[in-house]
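Tutorial handout. Part one gives the primary structure; part two gives the three-dimensional structure as tokens.
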Amino acid sequence: MKPFFMACLLTAGIAGCQPSPGDSSGKPSNFGEDAAFLRQHLKNVVVLQLPGDSSRVLVTGDYQARVMTSSANGDTGNSFGWINYDLVASGKLAPHINAFGGEERFWLGPEGGQYALFFPPGKPYTFDNWQTPGLIDTAHYEVRSETPGEVSYAYAGSIQNHAGYTFHLGVERTIRLLDRQHTGERLGFIIPDGLRSVAYETENVITNAGDSAWQEQSGLPSIWLLGMFKPSDQTAVIAPFQPGADARGQITDDYFGKIPVRNLQVSDSVLLFRADGNARGKLGIAPGIAKPGAGSIDLANNSITVLLYTVEPEGKYVNSKWEDQAEPYKGDAVNCYNDGPLEDGTQMGPFYEVESSSDARALKPGESLRYRQVTMHFEGEPPALQALASQLWQLPLDSVRQFLQQK
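Part two.
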């Protein structure tokens, strides 16, 4: 992956569950407690750590090689991933989707449309018919290799889309912990003094394991990575984009109804999106203007999160809207989601998500699509965070604070 920044470029319990040590709710409150909880309920838990380094990354093959959480300060450090403790503890599977949580999960797109992977052939796009495929929801991925700072998984399966085409594919996923030097190399600058950090890279590969080439007219899958993080009333997602006269028209902000002005601020090259877990909303950025990264600033916990990935401006990106589409390969490269109560008052989270997708390609038998993403978390005092935010986005923390204080 090329250095990410040049000049100003960014330039992103159920009943019967035994309480575990932690906060007053009985749920874990730091990385070590999260790890103990997950080891209690899962069979395949791997914690990546390097000698002499306080960073930690927890992965499980039980949930498709998912990164569940991480820490920049060992077992007692803040645990960055949102985890659905009740669902994990239940040991049961839910209808439609098993939202176990985790700060980076491997999915495949598109979700909706005539080539949807989440709707059976011939069925309308309704919630009753929506089903997350087992390959990315309930399958157990097997460990292929493991070292103290890296673990690789593999899985082989098939998946049918809404058009009736069945993809036979192999999946490989490697999670690699990065030390401070390699983290700085990915950023393209030296990390400011006074910041603790944890960073990891995932390498995701899908291979056409069938005997025929994938074709646009029968649908193409893409790699879709989704991160679920803990919200606060002092957290904002930061997503930069290429400026231009038509840039605003390439940002979709009405997936679940128009996002109110209070929750979304769009300037000429960066947007701020409230991530408080109190108002459901989703936005997307088209590949023509998306920059290769997004992130968030959490003023309550003095932390910054950065996600780095590749964007192909001329690539084919699948469209996941729940409708037959005139342009099924004109979808988003980047998505951001803020959770909130549904009309009936229920809520899955609260959490917020930052998501990225690969382009989709017509692979021949034996050909592969490879997609990498780096996730970084930084913690420290406000002056050090300000130095980082300035290098990342030329963004004053006070401007984020002012945005979040809007009524």
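Part three, for discussion. The chain has five helices and 19 strands. The chain has one domain: 105-404.
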